[in-house]
């Protein structure tokens, strides 16, 4: 009988060792799964969530000349054409240069560039404003054909973000 007890004890010990090994293997698989899941979350966060929501925006810059001369001061609006679902964006023209930063820039697509601004030259017309105050109207910098009626359409995208304009007053 003692021999049978020793044999039973050995079998029981082996069964406990096997169960212990199986528990250890399951534990290691759980740790591996948790680590892989954590790595996947970090990787997806780094790649897929760059801190901005929505479509990619682009910085747009360039120069604006009128009759060969840099425009000292004006405004520029980029209006999406009918095939582009992007926002209207804009910026200032200063000393013939403009820059619309990426954070406020357009998304990829076709945009109509509209130019506006008033010169420092009076038009000769006087406008009465609130309170009876009279104000001299200034001459526009750009002809109407570059404002609301502009045909200056450009495609904006990863390889198209710099646009120079040499416009004519005639």
Give a description of the structure.
With 170 residues, this protein is α+β, with helices and mostly antiparallel strands. It has two domains: 1-51; 60-167, Immunoglobulin-like. Helix content is 28%, strand content 36%. It is built from one helix and ten strands. Strands 1, 2, 3, 4, 5, 6, 9 and 10 form an eight-stranded mixed sheet that branches. Strands 7-8 form a two-stranded antiparallel sheet. It starts with a helix and ends with a strand.
Distance between the termini: 118 Å
Radius of gyration computed on alpha carbons: 35 Å
The structural class is alpha+beta
Would you count the extended β strands for me?
A: 10
- The mean pLDDT is 78
Considering the chains and any ligands shown, give keywords for the structure.
single chain, 170 residues, alpha+beta, eight-stranded mixed β-sheet, two-stranded antiparallel ribbon, 36% strand, elongated
Task: Note the topology.
Blueprint lengths: L1 H47 L11 E7 L2 E2 L2 E8 L8 E6 L2 E4 L8 E8 L1 E12 L3 E8 L12 E4 L8 E3 L3
Parallel strand pairs: 1-10
Antiparallel strand pairs: 1-2, 1-5, 3-4, 3-6, 4-5, 6-9, 7-8
